[in-house]
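Provenance

Sequences were taken from public entries as deposited. Structures were produced by running a predictor on each sequence independently, with no templates supplied. The record for Glycosyltransferase RgtA/B/C/D-like domain-containing protein from Desulfosarcina ovata subsp. sediminis is shown for reference.
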Amino acid sequence: MRILKRLARPLAAPAVFLLLALAATWPLAVSPASRLPMGTESAATVPLFNVWTVWWNADRAATGYDGYWDAPIFYPQTGAFSFSEPLPLSVVAAPVMWITGNRILAYNTLLIVCLWLNGWVAYRLLRRFHFYRPIPWIGGAMVALSPLVHSWLGVLQLVPVFGILWTVAALCQLSRRPTPVGGMVLGGAFSFTYLMCAYYGLFLLLPLMLSAVWLLGCRIRQWRMWRALLAALLVGGMICLPFAIRQGRITDGDRSAHTEQYLAQLSAMVPDYLVPPWPHWSGAADQTGMDGYAGFRLCPGYLKLGLAAAGMVFGLLARRRRRWTLFCLSLLCVAFALSLGPLLRIFGWQPYMLLVDHLPGFGQARNVFRFAVLVHLMVVLLAMMGLHGMLTLARRHICRDGLRRLAITVTIATGMLAAVEVLPPAQPFCQAPDDAANRKWVNWLATRTPADSVIVCVPFPFRPDVAGYQQETQWMYWQTFHGRKMVNGYSGHFPRTFLDLKMPMAAFPAPESIHLLHGRGVNYCVVKRDSIFAEAAWRLAARGSDLEPVLHDDTALMDIYRLIPASMN
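Predicted structure for Glycosyltransferase RgtA/B/C/D-like domain-containing protein:
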């Protein structure tokens, strides 16, 4: 029995945080192969796009990553995969896809694993500081249930924050024992963060460098510390630079830095940090008129903020934890300031625009407010310092047993309440595209057309908002089955070859659109029968001009036409 207990003890924390991840996304676990969590997304565009991204990583892994950057979208554009987050580490979900063939199941498995690791890694980090036993559990739950992360649940790359915590843990370990191996672990942890989310890697770099001085202290003057940091730099550079260089390479000359006005629209404001993503159980946001707030909702929770303030005081007073407290506080303040973007002015000087002008990546990163994720994580770490300080006061300075037990119970209950004070509501889902209904036309493309065929899917997107591109990501989802190159596509950046086609395709199958499709090497046109283009395409095909009907799918309401070469007209 003792042996079983010893074996089970290390598994307790992983099991608890896995159950917490499943509970937080319930009822996703009931149907993980047919539904996609939306978070606060208004359309399924981004979730479907990330399903396609996970598929592409699995598909390229099976071929030894041949042509990894030349994804089969935006044809004939090369390097199309560099226009968005590549998520190379999503390849861990590849076995699920290879075994089951289900893209949605692989995506949801990866999502649950990320939420699970968020809580577990936070728990492991807090265990390093020898806090009272309940504190790592509460801190892990706070990170696993982070309101900011759950509001972004429809954007897969924003879910894994455990890489940030792992990097912080590696830096903390390095400050205590500076060795080349420790430096390599730090470089690997940062690289992991960057490869899971380039946004997080880019945004973590500067706050971490500015705050690390508190942890490194006087050891920064020692040669062995510099040797360890050099090892971190080498490992991080070797892993991250190939991806950063490729993503930063401008293939069509129009991916310039965003304007100050544009970045300001996507920057946080100070009041944003007082409004939670969902209604607070106390109704505080409603009483202050914030229920219809139009800005970004970035409040981690009022109890967390209060505990973090207490943690700042306790940490600065405790000599043993002062450097750790200053590190967390510095990182929080730098991240908070940077999240304000160009809106932060110091006597007319804009620190963020200095980064845009001189550091690669900041000018292309649109959503400046996402620095808030670092603020949230540091609030949790400081809040755990506050809980530890309150428990220490209760244990040492309350003499009567009954009052001491009551104070300890109330303190722990406060921490638990803080973990769930901004609890995610029932998760909205979108239904996965119907594989059975679309099997006929998809299989026809996969089996009856040459492997190097190029297709265009109609309708083409016209609306500029994210919801307007949902049809594009549905076309991309079907591409994961038929594998044919498309001139269609969706990403974080749209190449000029795609944008130049949008307006002519609004008049498909007008001569100009047909001419442009010929120029892009298109062989087949897939047309939704319930679109406004279906009748015009049918009439053109009936005249035997430009289009030749090759398949009519009455179940999916799809028609496929072969684009007759211009030389044969």
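The CA atoms of residues 98 and 291 lie 45 Å apart.
DSSP finds 22 helices and seven strands in the chain.
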